Amino acid sequence: MLMKKYIVTLWAVALMLLTAACGGSGSRSAKRLAVSIEPQRYLLEHIAGDRWEVVTLLEKGSDPENFDPTVSLLRSVSEADAYFIVGTMDFEKSVAGRLSSGNPDIKIVDTSKGIELLTGTHSHRGSDGSVHTHTVADPHTWSSLPNAIVMATNMCDALVEIDPDNAGIYRANCDTLVAQLEAVHRDITAELVQSPHRRFLIWHPSLSYFARDYSLEQISLGDTNRELSPLTFKNNIDIASNADSIVMFTQTDYDYNRSDAVARQARARTVEINQLDYDFVSGLQTIAKEIAR
Ligand SMILES: [Zn+2]
C-alpha cells in the first residue's frame, strides 16, 4: 500500500517537472516561422532544421499573382516569430502590414535584399486592370540558383539574430545548403555550355533569371492569365514556329488554353513544370536537362 502511494507521488512529481519544462517557453509547443511560397520553405528548413516549424502562406494551386490569404491562414501565420517575404510579390506588402498590426513583434525579413532584380521581363496587372511591364521587378527570383544563395544567406542572418544561441548550427546548415546550390549551379552551367540549344518556349515568362544565368533566350507566348483571342493565338504559332526551339514549358499554375496546339504546330516538346514546388532545385535541374536534351 505504501509502495503504491510512493509510485503515485513519483508520477506526480515527474508530471509536474514535464509541465514546467514545456510551459517555460510560452504557450506554443513549436516555434514558428512563415514564408510566402514553398521554395522558400525548402531553403529555410535546410537552415533551421527541426528547431522551427515553417508554414507557407501560398496554398497549393493558388495563383501567386492574384492571391488573398484566408483569415484562418493569416491567424496561423501571425503566431510566427518572423515572416520571410520573397520581396517581389504583390500580396506580400498587404499581408506583412496585416501581420504587423496583429503582432507588432513579428519580424519581416526581405529575402530579396542584395538580388539584382530584372525589369521589363514580366507584366503586372494593377488593381484597375491595367497591365504594366517595364517598371516592375520580375517576381520569379527563385528561378536562379545564385539568387537562391542570396535568399538563403538572408534567411540565415535573420535566424541568427532571432535565435543567437543556435547561431553555430544555423551557419553550418547554411554553409552546407549553399555548397549544394553552388554544385547544382556548376553542373547546369557545364551541361548548358555544351548544348547547341539556346532557346526555349514558355507560356508565362517565369524563367527570366534562369535564362540570364545561363545566357539562354526565353521566348514567352503569353503573360497574364487570360483567354487568347484568335489573332493572339495565330501570332503565338508564328512566333513559336520561327523560334526554332525544341521544348516548350507549360506550368501547372497557369492553365492556358491551347498551349499544346501551339507547341505541336511549332514542333516543340511540351514539358510541364511547377515553379512553386517545394524542391525547386530538382525542378531547375529538370529544366536544364530538357533544354540540353
Ligand atoms: Zn509571373
Describe the protein's architecture and organization.
With 293 residues, this protein is α/β, with parallel strands linked by helices. The chain has a domain at 192-292: Nitrogenase molybdenum iron protein domain (Rossmann fold, 3-Layer(aba) Sandwich), CATH 3.40.50.1980. Helix content is 47%, strand content 14%. It contains 10 helices and 10 strands. The protein has helices spanning 2-23, 38-48, 71-78, 90-102, 145-162, 167-193, 208-213, 230-242, 259-265, 280-292; strands spanning 31-35, 52-56, 82-85, 107-110, 124-125, 131-132, 199-202, 217-220, 247-251, 269-273. The strands form 3 sheets. It has a 4-stranded parallel β-sheet with strand order 2-1-3-4, with helices on both faces. It has a 4-stranded parallel β-sheet with strand order 8-7-9-10. Strand 9, helix 9 (259-265) and strand 10 form a beta-alpha-beta unit. It is globular and about 60 Å long. 34% of the residues are buried. Bound molecules: zinc ion (ZN). The site of zinc ion has 6 residues, from loops.
Any chance you could write out the topology, listing elements then pairs?
Elements: H1 2-23, E1 31-35, H2 38-48, E2 52-56, H3 71-78, E3 82-85, H4 90-102, E4 107-110, E5 124-125, E6 131-132, H5 145-162, H6 167-193, E7 199-202, H7 208-213, E8 217-220, H8 230-242, E9 247-251, H9 259-265, E10 269-273, H10 280-292
Helix pairs in contact: 2-5, 2-6, 3-4, 5-6, 6-10
Bound molecules: zinc ion.
